[in-house]
Amino acid sequence: MDSPKALNSLSSAAGENVMDTGSTQETVASEAAPRIPLDIRDHGSVGDAYETIGTPLVENAKMSARKVNVYYGDKQAITDVSLDIGRNEVIAMIGPSGCGKSTFLRTLNRMNDIIPICRVEGEFSLDGEDIYGSGQDTVLLRARVGMVFQKPNPFPKSIYENVAYGPRIHGLAHNRAEMDEIVENSLRRASLFEEVKDSLDKPGTGLSGGQQQRLCIARAIAVSPEVILMDEPCSALDPIATARIEELIDELKENYTIAIVTHSMQQAARVSQRTAYFHLGKLIEVGETKQIFTMPRHELTENYITGRFG
Amino acid sequence: MENNTKIGEHTSQRYNAELEALRERVLTMGGVVERQCQLALESLVKGNAELASQVAGGDYEVNDLEVKICDQCTDILARRQPAAGDLRMIVAIIRMVANLERIGDEASKIGRKARKLADAPDRHAYIAEPLHLGKEVSEMLRGALDAFARLDVQSAIEIIARDPEIDREFKSLNRLLISHIMEQPQRVKNMLRINSCARALERIGDHAVNLCEEVVYLVRGADVRHLSVEEIKQRYQPRA
């Protein structure tokens, strides 16, 4: 809060990454792709009026989204989605490219605000507080609702500075010793400290991909967020680095609420407690992860997770 | 979603082919087991020692199929990571082949007893008793395999519901054999052999029920192995 200008540069740096890795390309791709006929068998109705199957809403939700519609220009990316993110749970969002899962994830910390043609409708709350309210500081919001992106995007600074950047601009440390502690704790919680403790002054970009992603997670948790949004955090990583991130997700859920978008269904099955299946901008089914992967109730969910879309 | 366990339509054609081949092999194994049971009964009824020997030593084909099918299942689990209906199919098949293999064992057992009984001079006096039980059990087995082939929960539940009747018949057959033994103690050895056959048939009925429970699991995703027939009917019978 000390220097809002610097904060804006943080969010816009992140924003560029958003543009790079997903949303615009995804929208274009979905326009080009042939439309899969939406057969909502359990309800018999097709089109805009639909109902999510399963349990999209939970008691004691950390974040709530109600009747969300998102448009990129004329194109509607998300249609009437209502979903709760439960406290201290990992919720996985899955679905084919262009289904709106990443777009939905980004509405949760207003990352879509920086896309000029993007229009968001609906009600969003964090601990019951409206996050799209006129008084809401998006910078503060993004400190409470942190984000980890598909491609590791460390700042071109030292490992130490990568982690210290957020706490510094939020004024979380009053002296060097406190900052050292925050940096060390964050790196420890991201299970990276042991590997980098002797090279904290080396550039973050010199780390391996998996280490860079853990550095980004350390950077995200350094500002003590309440919710961490992860958009395909392991798509650029090898299986061992992926396993470490997944292990980390499991540990982090003790203290944080995590929403993860992933194209790997096995990953969704491994890390999450609830799974939400999106299809063509609609939230088709939400349920306990075990149920979704053994006995999904909607045919579209079944088709997707068994690999039946052509 | 009543019947969501379709094999085809995967993006990967090879995956379709693998699942289809697996399913066909299970049906083949079912056919072999069914034939073993029929031959076992026939050898018992006709007193055909040669046929009985053939059945007694004829479970190698079933054992071989069991090993091959389990290997195919392991392969698909390792390489495809099946989910939802596909996963239930694999899990159900792994459990089904174990039951089919045991049915094969029971048929061999009947063959062994039938070989001993073939020379008994008075065999016509008591051979009719297990015949009725054998017919009923064979029907259940055929019905179970049909229910699997057609993923027919309704038929599967109907077969599960027949099991108490089989148990009652087995018990009354036992009582009958006991009274025979008391009347003619010199026949005790053969009576015990008949009892073994009846026990084997009753077990085949139980295994057929297990097969049907897997069909319910496969289609409805619910483990009904330790529910009563009434509970299964109430919860999982398709509504007309």
Could you characterize what this model shows?
The complex is a heterodimer of chains A (310) and B (240). With 310 residues, chain A is of the alpha/beta class. Chain A has a single domain (2-305), classed as Rossmann fold (3-Layer(aba) Sandwich). Chain A is built from twelve helices and eleven strands. Chain B has 240 residues and is mainly alpha-helical. Chain B has a single domain (13-236), classed as Up-down Bundle (Methane Monooxygenase Hydroxylase, Chain G, domain 1), CATH 1.20.58.220. Chain B has helices at 13-46, 49-56, 60-80, 84-117, 128-150, 153-160, 163-183, 188-220, 229-236. In chain B, helix 7 (163-183) runs antiparallel to helix 8. Chain A binds chain B through residues 41-42, 265-266, 269, 293-299, 301-303, 305-310, and chain B through 1, 4, 9-12, 15, 81-88, 221.
Give the secondary structure arrangement, pairings included.
The complex is a heterodimer of chains A (310) and B (240).
Chain A: H1 4-21, H2 23-32, E1 53-54, E2 61-72, E3 75-86, E4 90-94, H3 101-107, E5 118-126, E6 129-130, H4 138-144, E7 145-148, H5 159-169, H6 176-189, H7 193-196, H8 209-222, E8 227-231, H9 239-252, E9 257-261, H10 265-271, E10 274-279, E11 282-288, H11 289-294, H12 299-305
Parallel strand pairs in A: 1-11, 4-9, 4-10, 7-8, 8-9
Antiparallel strand pairs in A: 2-3, 2-5, 5-6, 10-11
Helix pairs in contact in A: 5-6, 5-8, 6-8, 8-9
Chain B: H1 13-46, H2 49-56, H3 60-80, H4 84-117, H5 128-150, H6 153-160, H7 163-183, H8 188-220, H9 229-236
Helix pairs in contact in B: 1-2, 1-3, 1-4, 1-5, 2-4, 3-4, 4-8, 5-6, 5-7, 5-8, 6-8, 7-8
